[in-house]
Specification:
With 172 residues, the protein is of the alpha/beta class. The longest helix has 15 residues. About 3% of the residues have low confidence.
């Protein structure tokens, strides 16, 4: 199974204040996101993380990656420092990726696009960065944890979601 996510911001003390995530502490936030990831993603699954993964040393990020199920690819975000990008545990790192999945061309980038490759041929833009606050255009989806109950999500769930806005309450 292939999953998509973004904007986990592990170990970033700003995230609770800026995004008003419903956790009492950063440690609680990180434990919950790790648990939700591992409840959703299996060891043999693949995850495309569309940026803003974590803050911390390369050894911290590498240890975090080891604790998360699946083969992990990073689409680099504006808050991904060299320590995150260079950490051991990524299957790949890049700023942009075009991926064919289930008969659809997916355009993967941390940032949402106004227009993108093959938009006229029904390609799909998956992004992070906006933390669920951006009004999407047709065939554009924010895969960040703020939009998906703090979990990675599959393409079928993404495509079935248009018109659904999950409540931003404390999961669990």
């Amino acid at each position: 199974m292939i999953y998509f996510t973004a904007d986990t911001h592990f170990s970033d003390p700003r995230i609770l204040r800026i995004d008003r995530r419903p956790f009492g502490s950063l440690a609680e936030h990180d434990r919950a996101l790790i648990a939700f990831w591992n409840e959703t993603v299996g060891p043999d699954d693949e995850v495309w993380h569309l940026g803003d993964f974590a803050k911390g040393s390369a050894s911290f990020v590498s240890s975090l990656l080891l604790s998360l199920h699946g083969s992990k690819h990073l689409i680099i975000g504006n808050n991904d420092a060299a320590t995150t990008i260079d950490a051991t545990g990524w299957a790949s790192t890049q700023h942009y990726k075009e991926l064919s999945l289930d008969g659809s061309l997916l355009i993967l980038c941390h940032y949402p696009f106004r227009t993108w490759n093959q938009i006229g041929r029904r390609s799909i833009d998956l992004h992070g960065h906006s933390h669920g606050r951006l009004t999407p255009v047709t065939r554009q989806y924010d895969v960040g944890v703020d939009s998906w109950d703090f979990r990675p999500v599959t393409l079928p769930a993404i495509l079935a979601s248009r018109g659904r806005r999950p409540a931003r309450t404390k999961p669990g």
